[in-house]
Amino acid sequence: MKLPTTYAVLLACLSACLFAVTATGCNPAPPATPAAAEATAPPVHIVPLPQSVDVQSGELQVSGAVALEAPEAAPNARRALEELLSTLGLAQDASAAIRIRLQLVDDAALPDEGYRLRVGEGIVLVARTDAGLLHAVQSLRQLLPAQAQPQYRLPRVAITDAPAYSWRGSSVDVARSFLPVEYLEKHIDRMAFFKLNRLHLHLTDDQGWRIEIKRYPKLVEIGGASAVKGGRSGWYTQEELKHLVAYAQARGVTLVPEIDMPGHVQAMLASYNELACDDEDNLSTYDGLEVGFSVLCLSKPDVVYPFVRNVLEEVLAIFPSQEIHIGGDEIKDPLYADFVARTAAMVREMGRTPIAWEEGSVADTGPDLMLQLWNEGYAIDAAVAKGHPLILSPCTYFYIDHGNYAGQPQTYDWCRKEGVPLQRVYSFDPARYPTAVGVEGALWSELVHADATADDRLWPRLAAVAEVAWTPADRRDYAGFVQRLGALRPHLDAMGVRYHPEPDLGWGNRDSGP
Ligand code: ACM
Questions:
Q1: Separation of 467 CA from ligand 1 center, angstroms?
Q2: Which one-letter DSSP state was computed for residue 59?
Q3: Could you say which of 123, 177, 338, 359 has the lowest number of CB atoms within 10 Å?
Q4: Ligand 1 in contact with 189 (CB < 6 A)?
Q5: Could you tell me the pTM of the whole model?
Q6: Per-residue pLDDT tens for 126-177?
Q7: Helix locations, 162-202, DSSP H
Q8: How many angstroms separate the alpha carbon of residue 62 from the centre of ligand 1?
Q9: Atom 2 in ligand 1: which residue has the minimum CA distance?
């Protein structure tokens, strides 16, 4: 039976509901009675929604042990699958009746990150790349419960899948308030679960400098000790960042560093006063909330550009990401456009692709400069016409330091008074921008000072970011998303996520949050 995905999911849900009426309505929990267990296949609830889900009749039962086959060339997918089996208490045994096969194929019909997943007599996961197989493993994980059980029931299903957009991002501002390495590791795991693949680290800003630069140790001695009032100071050693890069790579996530320049640099100026103009008398560290007041002294190119180059050389030696973010937001300076053009050229000479915030579009650069849009109303059309690739983070949809609902305590509302609720995030269509490479949810940290607060702002909204980036708008609908994501709550619980208790998902009410 071949059904369009939405109908297949709805049917699975409806049939489950016929047998399992629970307090929260249509719930994907296993049917309540043995008779029902025979009559219904377990529902399929995958986020982001796959390209096609062909639910067949019957189910596959798994218990005890499975036989695993995996090619050498897919070490990350193999590790992810082994971790899944271990979480579920399933042993590996080459003679087990149920076989799980990871297969790399040279099939031009499969995009880089695409995959096929078939549950029949056994389980077969097919892709062209390790990254594609990693996504297949995550889909398999979502077909299974979050915790170990004596027996597992999987729907017989054939899934074919690939992302609409290659950039499916989360950015975190560790500059205003620091996030520990352990938190970032957990964040990467959670991103991977939803097939998000870019973690953009906003490493520097007025309030703090978080990346060790060996040539300029005062950047962390002074800038690393500073933070926004009430926030956390701290910095990452180069070793810690290299560890994070490898940790993320193994999970299909690329870390994208941002060194924000030529504005948002008070921590830099406080560390190395010579980067400021000679008449600048404010050279202290800063813990306030203002923006747009600090700037590198661009009329001292002999001081500024060697510094920028030396910093970028160390940054690039840590981060293999093809794309490197040079900031470029919220500063007025007569030499601004020249700075963006020169710094973008520097990144390009080093073999990488520069990214700047939307304002960088005024610089005279080649169209390879990627631009990150953060204001829907910004005049970006000329840059699009020139061919600049766009990362889409318009603040009314994707600034998730804004409230999960209007008036949520400890949230900003300067961009949108009503906050940025889950449904709002979900409603965005990247196809409005012909050169879009994807979307990114941005967590700024002026008001986010603790891990639990970060969790509350990031989740569940990043799951909506993931689906906006993965699934074309004409195949998405909020009701289906809510049903599927609602069902994945035990997985988020198992990952220890302290998500916002989103009423749309039946996860709580507005008073039950932090
Ligand atoms: C920004 O919000 N200044 C990128």
A1: 23
A2: E
A3: 338
A4: no
A5: 0.92
A6: 999 999 999 999 999 999 999 999 999 999 999 999 999 999 999 999 999 9
A7: 181-193
A8: 49
A9: 374
